[in-house]
């Protein structure tokens, strides 16, 4: 794991250079679905001490892509994400802490209008000129957001990998 702590300041997420990948089980756990969501914006605020740092981000629920048009329509439908009614998926941090060599970002993830706790593990944080490049992972329980359709056929948990490039703002 590579963690390079950036200098204090506000870093705006570049939606074009950032994104969310996911994987989930389906068909009673026998198969794996992989796909992505597009990030639409957000920011990382680096504080001193670093435990006071915060992050918030938004993703477009309508951007769900799994490579299967029928599945994509179903997941965006009212049965799952209800992306027309709730087009935004958002995250706002509530804690940033280090335990041993592991940094964790805790917060609230809101999907389909329902907020639930989410805990991300920072896998890497690197500095590239005025940018920070972060990769973080989390296991998300879709039932916590009221998304309970197709129990068994669609897995309860999603494993998210968020890849963010954010540019320092002066």
From TrEMBL:
Record-stated family: Belongs to the UPF0312 family.
PANTHER family with a match to the protein in the record: PROTEIN YCEI
Domain Lipid/polyisoprenoid-binding YceI-like: 10-167
Gene3D superfamilies: Lipid/polyisoprenoid-binding, YceI-like
Protein name: Lipid/polyisoprenoid-binding YceI-like domain-containing protein
Pfam families, per database record: YceI
Source organism superkingdom: Bacteria
Native organism: Mycobacterium dioxanotrophicus
InterPro entries to which the protein is assigned, alphabetical: Lipid/polyisoprenoid-bd_YceI (IPR007372), TTHA0802/YceI-like_sf (IPR036761)
